[in-house]
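Morning!

This is the sequence you dropped in the shared folder:
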Amino acid sequence: MRYWKDYKGHDVDILGKTKKIDNTIYTFDIETTSYLILDGEVINAREYQILTPDEQQRCIKQACMYIWQFSINDTVYYGRTWDEFKQFLDLQEENDDTKKIVFIHNLAFEFQALWSVIRIKSVVSRKSRKLMRCQLEDYNIELRCSLMLSNLKLEKLPEVYQLPVKKKVGDLDYSLLRTPITPLTDKELGYCEFDCLVTYWYIKTELETYKRVDKLPMTSTGKVRKQLQRLVLSNMSYVHKVSKQINTDPAVYNMLVDAFAGGYTHANYIYTDDVLNNIDSYDETSAYPYVLVTFKFPSTKFTRCYIKSADDMLPNFAYLVTVKIKNIRSKYYNNFISSSKCSEIKGRPNYDNGRIISAKEVTITCTDIDLRFYLDAYSYDSYEIVKAYKAMYNYLPIEYVNFILDKYVLKTKLKNVEGKELEYAREKGAFNSLYGMTVTNTIRADVNFVNFEEWIEKPLNDAEIMTKLYKDKKRGFLNFAWGVWCTAYARDNLLRRVLDLDEYVVYCDTDSCKVTQGYDKSIFEKYNQQVEAKIRRVCEERNIEFERYAPADIKGNKHLLGVFECETGKGRNVTYDQFITQGAKKYAYSIDGQIHVTVSGVPKSGGAKCLHSLDEFRDDLVFDFEHTNKLTLAYNDDQVPVTITDYLGNDYTVTDKSGICMLPTTYKLGKALDYADLITNESTERAKFRHVK
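The structure's back. C-alpha cells below.
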C-alpha cells in the first residue's frame, strides 16, 4: 500500500465519445474509532456496556476517521486525514476529470463520515441512510455501494466468487482508540489494504459480464432484472401483454401493498421452551420460483366488483379483498393471521406471538388464496367482504417462465462442477433474486437528504402514486401483483401441510417445516406427487419439456422444483438430535453433539459459543459481546470537537462533524409478556395438549 503523496498519476480507461466514462476500477474504504464523551471525559466505546443506564443515556456517542484507502485498480493509496483525501482527489482531477465511479462496500457507513467533509450533489436511496449511490459536488465522482450489488459481507466475497485475495479478519484490533496520528503497524496497514483489494477483485469479476462500470446494476436483484430486461423489453408482444395488466388506480395499488405478506415464520406454542428429541426438517425446493412457473396469476387489470363471500368468487378470477371476520377462533394449535396485517382488531384478542388465536372481529386485506385458507383454519360466526377487486387468472408470460427455468437448469448443472465455481455463484445469485425482482416496489416514498444535512422520507400522495404507476405501465416489464400472489401461493403450499400435521409441527420458516416423530410422512410424499402431476399438466398445456422442471446435476441426480425434501446428513436417520425454540427466528439445535443457534440479529458462530447445552437456551440467556462481537450503530450528525488520547498516549483534536459510533451490545433471549403467559398458562390448549401427552 502506498502513501497518497507517492501518487504520480495513472493511466485511465476512457470509454465513450460524447458521454465519457472512466472504466478504471476505483474503490474506497475508511477505518474509524468509536468513543464516548461522558461528563466531559473521553472514554473508549467498548466500555459502553459497563456504564449505568443513566450514564449510557447521558454520554455523547462519536467516531473519528483515522485512515482512508483509495484503490486505483489493484494499487491502493492511503492517507490519514480528510484534508489529505481532498488533496488526493485534486491530484486525480489534474490527471483526468472524466467521470469516475468509486465502489464502497457499505456506502452508508462511509457516507455518514463523508457528507460533512465533502459536499454532496445528489443521493439515490431507498430509505433513510441506506444509499445506493451519491454524486460528489466538487469532483466528477459517483460513489456506489458494492454491498447492495453483491448482497454479501466483505469476508464472504472471496469464498463465493473465488477471488485471489481474502479479507484479513482479525488483523485489526477495533477495541483500541486510534486517531490520524496513531502509528499503524504493517499488519494493520495490510488489513486496510485488503479491504479495498477484495472490493476491487469483486468488481473485476462483475465486469467480466457487464464490461463497463457504469452498466453495473445497483443491487443484486438488479443483476437479474437487467438480464430479463434485455430479453423481453424488445419483445413488443410481451411489453403490451404486461402493460395491459398494470393498474394505475392508487386504490388498487394500496390494497396490493396491504395484501402483500412475506413467508410464514412461526413456532408452534405447544412446543415452545421444550427441548425436543429427534426432529425432522423438510425444505421445499425453490418454493417461490416453483410457484412462478407453475401457478396462475392476475393477468388483467383489477376491476371493482361487489361480492359478499368466497362463495361469490368466480372460477378463473383472482380476487383482492378487504374482509371483516366476526368472533374468529383458531381451529388448530398453530395460528396464522398476523395481527400486524390487520387494519382493525376488535374485542379482547388473544395472540400467539403476534398471530391471532381469537378476536371479536378482525379486518384484513388479502388475496383470494389467503382468504380461503383463513376460512379453513379458523372458526367464525360470520364474515363479510367489504371491498373487492377482481382480475382474470392466467399463467405468467412464457418468456418470463422460460427465463426462470433456464436459470434453474443452469444453476443445477453447474453445482459442484470443478472449475465452474464462479459461474455457479453467479447463477445461484441470479436464481435466488428471481422472486425479489417480482416484489420490488417501484412506487416508493421519496427519500431526500435535505440541504445535505437531514434525511426525510416523504410519503407519496395519490397523484404521485398514479404518475409512477403510469411509468410502470409504459415500461410493461413486471407486475407487482405477481409478487403478491407468489408469496400467497407459497404460504398456502406450506400451511396446508401444517394443517395436516398440526400437532407434530414444531416450527416453520417460509419454505421449511420442522416436525416431531410420529408424523405421517405420507403427507409430504402425497404432496410431492401432486407437485409432479401439476408440473406435468402445465408442461403439456404450455409445451414445455418436463426435464426443465427437473434438471440433473453433475452426478445425474434430478432436482424437481417445488417438492419437500427431508434434510438428513450422510448416515443419519433424523435431521436434528435435539431442537428448541423460543418463538419466531429464535431456535437452537444439535447435530452429533454440535450446537447451532439461529437468533435474529445474533451471529450464528458467536451465538453457538454462548451455550453448552440446549437446556441453556431459555429466557434471560445473554448473548454477550465477547462471544458474538455484535455491534449496534449510533449515528451522530452533529459531533462536537474534542481532544482524545489514543491507546499509545498521543493527544489529537477531532473535528469530524458526522460519524457512526459502533457500540458493543448484548442480546438477551426473552418473550413478550403475552407470549410468556400463553406458554405458562394452564388453561391454554398447550396445557391440555401436554396433559394428554
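Headline: The radius of gyration is 28 Å.

More detail when I'm at my desk.
O.
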